[in-house]
Specification:
The complex is a heterodimer. By secondary structure, chain A is mostly beta strands. Helix content of chain A is about 0%, strand content about 50%. The chains are: A mainly beta, B mainly beta. Chains A and B meet through strand 4, strand 5 and strand 9 of A and strand 5, strand 6, strand 10 and strand 11 of B.
Chain lengths: ~110, ~110
Amino acid sequence: NAGVTQTPKFRILKIGQSMTLQCTQDMNHNYMYWYRQDPGMGLKLIYYSVGAGITDKGEVPNGYNVSRSTTEDFPLRLELAAPSQTSVYFCASSPGTGDEKLFFGSGTQLSVL
Amino acid sequence: AQKITQTQPGMFVQEKEAVTLDCTYDTSDPSYGLFWYKQPSSGEMIFLIYQGSYDQQNATEGRYSLNFQKARKSANLVISASQLGDSAMYFCAMREGIRTIFGAGTRLFVKA
């Protein structure tokens, strides 16, 4: 199984550009999450979803948007990139059935210059 | 509001010795889950151990054990017989409802 797949792995953006970070999972998990990890820090929750069509804000949602049109996909959109969004972004999923261990993707390293 | 506190930014341990990484949490929800994840220098997040708030016994997974003290709201990770490969960042996390939040992490250095 592929698990949680994130693309791209690395990206450099100019200030004001937009991009979408892709995340897909093949485990039929209901719950999906986006986190960001600044250098030397812990993970901060950006957005999460409990199923197709349902999303909600996490701890640090400003500057981001998400959608969940299918169970498998949970893309994260940056509309106007700012240097403060330079970070490593992790997508994660969990079954939504009890013991909610997170299954993580390998991360996207984003630099905004 | 949920909160996870890891007070040790960095820890050193001699190979083959045990080490305890501290974690305290704050929640008003009686049902929650506590996790530890390892992040090696390669960057991936690796699940280590889980403790449910209603679990009576401390969780164990191989060389990892979770010292759960509910009244003190602490969930310390104990790694026995440290190995060089244990050098990494370690994150304590708490699930309350749907959301999981993370502490700032502790960087563990294992000395040969």
